[in-house]
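Progress report, Aim 2. The chain analyzed during this reporting quarter is listed below.
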Amino acid sequence: MQDLLGQVVGAHCGQLPDTEQLRLATALDRCVWPLVTTPRLGKQLLRKADFALPVVRGEANPLDQVILQALELLHPDLHRFIATNRSLLVDRPAFTASREARCANTQSTGTATAAARPASSRPLRPLPQPVTEAVQLDQLDVQRRD
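Predicted structure tokens for the chain:
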């Protein structure tokens, strides 16, 4: 199974340096392969890696992406925690620098401008006013889907 995963990674990323190959082999041997208890799980991991690697080409480390795909498959709750609490786990100097620039812009003008905000964080349309009155809350038709 490890050879097949190596072929998938090689097909999308080319020849990896020896240090990266060693890092992937170590992570898989210690953390992933002991949890892959059926051939079906192994094939699912191969498919997830084969789908995800071309999508993030040039944006993310391919080996980290393979490990994240394995984490999503084998420990979905832990993967969800990491995805929702990224700021606790990832140090992003570029994000910190842009946040400092926004804060400086806010302090100099008194308000944050849309230009200071990254395009990906702007809402597509204005957000509605929050519902705060009890009468409005009673009128909402909220249904759980368990």
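Residues 24 and 30 are 10 Å apart (CA to CA). Residues 2-74 form one domain. These observations will guide the mutagenesis work planned for the next reporting period.
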